Amino acid sequence: MNREMAKLRKDPTIPPSAATVTTSTATAFPVSPRLGNAESRANGPRHRTSPKGAGARAASMAAASAASVASVSTTNSASSAATTAASSTTGTTGTATIGGTGLGVGHSSGNTGALASGSSVGLRNGHRQHTSSSSSGMGGGQRRSNNLGNNNTFKFDTNGALWALSASPDFSMVAVVGRDVLKVLSVNENGAEELVNLKTVGIRNNFAGSMDVKWGPTSGRDAKIATIGTNGPIVIWDVGTHNKIDRTIKEHTRSVNRICFSPQDPNLLLSASSDQTVRLWDLRQRDRPGLVMETKDTVREVQFNPVSMNDIVAGYESGNVQRWDLRNLSTSEKKFMAHMGFVTSLDYHPSGRFLATGGRDRTIKVWDMEDEKKREIHTIPTIQYTSKVQWRPHKPYHLAASFKDESTVQVFDFRRPFVPLHILTQHDKDATAVLWKDSDVLWTVSKDKTFASTNIKGQPLSADLLPSGKAAMNCYGQLAFTVSGKGSYDSFEKDLVPWAGKTNAKSVALDGSSEPTIYRTRQTGGVFDCELFNHEAFIYCAQNYLTEAGNVRNACEHNSNIAWQANRFRDSQTWTSLKLFYSDMAESALVVSQVEAASSEATAASKQKDGQVPDEGEENLDDLDMGQSKPTVPSLFAIKVSDAPVKRNWSHDDTIRNLLEYYAEQGDVQMCVTILLVLADEKELPEFSRSQQWFGSYIDLLSRFKLWSVATAVSQACKDPAIHTMNQDSTTIHTACSSCMKPILTRAPSSSGFWACDRCRKVLSSCSVCRKTVRGIFVWCTQCSHGFHLQHAQEWFSQSAECPTGCGHQCFPEMLKVQQEQEQQQQQFYHHHQQTPDDDMAYDSVHYQHPRPLHPHQEQVSYPGHRHSRGGEAQEKGSSPLPFST
Amino acid sequence: MNQVTKFDGSHEDLIHDVAFNYYGNRLATCSSDQKIKVWDYNESDGIWESSSAFKAHSCAVLKTSWAHPEYGQVLASCSFDRSVIVWEESYHDAAKKWTAVATLRDGNGTVQDVEFAPNHLGLRLAIVAADGLVKIYEAMDVTSLAHWTMIDSFAVGEGPSKDEEGNHCLSWCTSKFTTQMMVVGCAKDHVAKIFRQDPNNKWQACEILGGHGGVVHDVSWAPNMGRSYHLIATACKDGHVRIFKLTDDNQGGAMSGGWTRKLFIVTCIADFADHNAEVWRVEWNVTGTILSSSGDDGKVRLWKATYTGDWKCMSVVSAEDGPNAFQR
User: Fold this and answer.
1) What count of CB pairs under 8 Å joins A to B?
2) Which of B15, B285, B326 sits opposite A473 (nearest CB)?
3) Do A705 and A808 share a domain, yes or no?
4) Is the pLDDT of residue A232 over 90?
5) Where does the sequence pass through the membrane (chain B) (predicted)?
6) What's the pLDDT band for B189 if we cut at 50, 70, 90?
7) Are residues A644 and A506 in the same domain?
8) Do A564 and A515 fall within a single domain?
9) CA 20 to 30 Å from A882, out of A137, A151, A326, A547?
10) Tens digits of per-residue pLDDT, A787-828?
């Protein structure tokens, strides 16, 4: 197999990157499977940091020492490394790692390809210090992990859910642990492979996994790993010389949650435990119990200050964070409530001054530990609470976090708290811990059993996935929009600008500069009226057009005037022409041409606005000189009218069809519907397949403008049953007596109808002012439920704010302050216009308390036709607040 | 009147969606700062006033949609945090307060779009998430809104898409007199598809709107208003705004009453690259006559058909100069 690989490296068909390795150094993949026998163990980590001996290693080091290596020599050294690797592999059969991952390379063509490209990339970057120092092992890529194509971006399957990781000081190895995983992996740019499996040793000591792992700051012969065994005690491993347990610390009476080595003194280890203590262990002194920092609180997290070695900080289950000075344990230096709910993670800023904490309250906060104030200086709200946070090296504002029950790992920039810089989706299941290898490469472990390395330089910025703007228009022709000049800027600053406005007083610069810079998005936006729709004309026409069929001539003339007054000259012209079509006698050509001339000029005036009506239209009308005007714009009917004298029996089918199609095309359903209604009685009127849509759309549009009465009239006037019965559709109003709550059954023979309650004989829906039964419009106070004639209510409440019944309710509190204008008074009440004036039925009041109280200004109710019942239950419960019946 | 209300500084990060309510007198904005703001139009002053602001999600809020006002003041919002939340406004001592009445969280991945169904279908909500599934929920009891039942679910493409592969989007056909239809943008497939209910009430893809050179960021189905055809606009990552016209395909058997897969003749009647940058959103006005599009070039463009049926850019609103720079 290794011979194949050697061939592969010589193969000219290897991807172009292989040919570009001329300036790079060659490194064989560092693999030295930890074996069961002592000999191979002697080749363990301690050699890793000071490589010597093996031929391949020498070859690779020779290559590494050359600043520039010709491609041929690179290939040679690589192949020799591979060849030696082959011999090495044959010499170390039966390794403990065999069968570990199933990710062996070279068995399938796909993996071989990945290996080839991975190798070439690795060669190119082989000058990295830690990699060359770790390139001691042999094996030429056995058990190499799956390279995802990007340098330093790969995944490695460990066959068990992972909870924590910790890297050796030179980042050539990483310890990964989980409930039943205790492994040390060797890692370089191209992948990872299993080096040691400590599980067998662990099982002999009654634990198969670990909650947390920390690699001591020493390397080589003295390398130590601390783990928290799943059975409780802290276990110190000696991995420098033998993979054996150096010491087991069992002093904690309850489970240990976190351990931390001192970055300065490799013998100092902190442990945070549920027994409410933090203990400091000196690993040199086996007999001495640790230093104890006791509180009345479970300790979740503990960490040394990276700069000041006597300074430690602990996070507690109560949400407290406490700083301790190891020289003086009697008092805590600084203690503050950091989170609601327990502190789940914390990390000291590399500067040693700031502390990031993640809490159960789903926030990450940054604290200035040198400031006496107990207030956070930055906050990031997160998707879930963090399981691990770590500051990014050399990027003072960046922090990586993994979350509880969350597969993504996110990298934040505190200058933009709401949009993570990157959202990494490498893992399929919950990511459990993060570790920066260097400022660009992030190592993560997950419950999906994998260890992943991600070069975030190749990752998309999450801000790029977010829409930068949106525009919306309402029926009044207003445009609401947000836009952002995103395209012309790169990276972080493309969306954000330093902002000179109101500064966030609690912000503190994390990068050492004296003044924090506040950033805001470049986005601007707003709402403004851009006259996209002439709603005033629409409303005026809707309210004033005659829609009754029967007298076409009158209606057309009236509507023509209305359209004219609304500055809709084209529509006015249409109506005039329609009048001519459907009048009993043909009008004189003079009239026609006059009308035409007038409207043509108006149209010409408005032409610029693309059919929109000019405001100066009214003046045009005054200035109009019939005799002088010339039709400059071909009007819709000019030819027809002038060609043939209009006669009653002349068929206008095509014209009407074209006319309506034209208006429909323009989205002007108002004209479509009004024309259809006015001409409804005309026998020649053709069928329009889409008249339903026109009616439906028009009624919908009227509803948007709250023109309920017009909408009702239109719906009533329409002969199409689907439209005509729209108002009756599932509109059921159940009424009951306001004093005894007995339902009012008008159909019952013995019933007194709507006038009085059958049980208590009280008058229904009486006016609280005149005490008479109200017919027609009935208004009532939604709070105290007393009702009135509209007029009486207006009169009463122009004088007083209080209910006339003396119930004491301030029905109209505004009266106390100022005299309100008439229109505002009306808003205070629900009123309903009787649909058919001749209807003799009085309205019954329903005085249920609506389950969801309605605000007087809430416009959701008024129009019966648009309050369909859904499922009918609402109405059966009597929840409708509407004071009318159908 | 005609005052300009600016959003500047009202949100702490990008605003991703602005949505008018049915009457056009309320406006909801949602942002990456995890908040939703509701603005009310003050008719006497002609300005928009912020009436509520509330933290809605634990991640960026991507879209928001108003329910028809007959169900009360109800909003739905979707987010990167994989949930859809239905909000209802309530009044306590004259103070308006939005409360989450229901949280729909059974999706796998970011919920990328949410839209209430047209009113005639009842109180329904369609959502589409990164898992590539469109789900339609219906409120069981319009008086409480706490219980939403999933009544339909269908896959739009070949499996899930990661967020970085592009987003899904959807838009209902609001026409009352056709079968239920919607257009869905299919993330990594770089197409939009029209789905409609077959006679067995199963949602089936019936047309494909192709020709996109990238992810379809947004789709918008124009209000039909009784026109003989439908218009659908798409916003695409390739920088194009496209308008598709769907004409009834009478030969296809639509008239014979049987359900056919082929229903429309789809023609792309407009294709504009004016933005010259990623186009994020498109939306029609209420009459389906004006289309707005917004893109990374920092401009909003308004499109309108001329009398000859050609679509033209009628105006450009630019970010650099603010709303005052509106040019006709």
Assistant:
1) 290
2) B285
3) no
4) no
5) none
6) confident
7) no
8) no
9) A547
10) 888 888 888 888 787 888 888 787 777 666 555 555 555 555
A415 band by pLDDT with thresholds 50, 70 and 90: confident
The chain A residue lying nearest B318, using CA atoms, is A483
Residue of B nearest to A696 (CA): B176
In chain B, ranges of CATH 2.130.10.10 domains: 14-119+132-155, 170-328
Residue percentage of chain B with pLDDT more than 70: 91
What one-character-per-residue DSSP string does B294-316 give? EETTSEEEEEEE-TTS-EEEEEE
Query: How many domains is chain A built from?
Result: 3
Side chain identity, residue A158:
T
Cα B317 from chain centroid? 21
Instruction: Name which of A162-171, A490-499, A667-676 the model is least confident about.
Output: A490-499
| Distant-in-sequence, close-in-space partners of A779: CB < 8 Å, separation ≥ 6 | A787, A788, A789, A790, A793, A829, A830, A831
Domain B14-119+132-155: CATH superfamily is: YVTN repeat-like/Quinoprotein amine dehydrogenase (2.130.10.10)
Closest CA of chain A from B261, distance in Å: 23
Q: How far apart are CA B112 and CA A466, in angstroms?
A: 10
pLDDT over threshold 70, residue A103:
no
Number of neighbouring beta carbons within 10 Å of residue B101? 18
From chain A, the residues in CB contact with B299 under 8 A are: 483
Say yes or no: A786 and A883 in one domain: yes
Q: Which residue from B20, B91, B302 is facing A480, i.e. has the nearest CB?
A: B20
- Give dist(CA A171, CA A134) in Å, integer: 9
- Dump pLDDT digits (tens) for B291-308: 999 988 888 899 998 878
Alpha-helical segments (H) within A607-730? 617-623, 638-643, 653-665, 669-678, 691-704, 708-717, 721-724
Query: What mean pLDDT comes out for the span A679-703?
Result: 82
Q: Quick check: B59 and A693 CB within 8 A?
A: no
Instruction: Return the bridge partners of B302, or none.
Output: B292, B315
Dihedral sign, Cα of residue B284, residue B289, residue B293, residue B299: negative
For A283-319, strand residue ranges (E) read 291-294, 299-304, 311-316
Contact A829, A793 (CB under 8 A): yes
CB A221 within 8 A of CB A246: no
Phi, psi dihedrals of residue A498, rounded to the nearest 5°: -60, 140
Instruction: Evaluate if residue B233 carries a pLDDT over 50.
Output: yes
Answer for the pair B238, B244: CB distance below 8 angstroms, yes or no.
no
**The pLDDT of residue A99:** 33
User: SS3 for A283?
Assistant: coil
Instruction: Tell me how far apart the alpha carbons of residues B19 and B29 are, in angstroms, rounded to a whole number.
Output: 7
Closest chain B residue to the Cα of A422, Cα to Cα: B164
Mean of the pLDDT values across residues A273-288?
86
| B199-210 tens-digit pLDDT | 888 888 888 898
For A201-205, what is the mean pLDDT?
A: 81
The pair of three-digit structure tokens given for residue A820, joined into one six-digit string:
């309100």
Q: Residue A610: its chain B contacts at CB < 8 A?
A: 304, 306, 314
Of A501, A527, A859, the CB nearest to B5: A527
CATH of domain B170-328: 2.130.10.10
The encoded tokens of residue B2 equal 């005609």
Residue B135: strand pairing partners: B127, B153
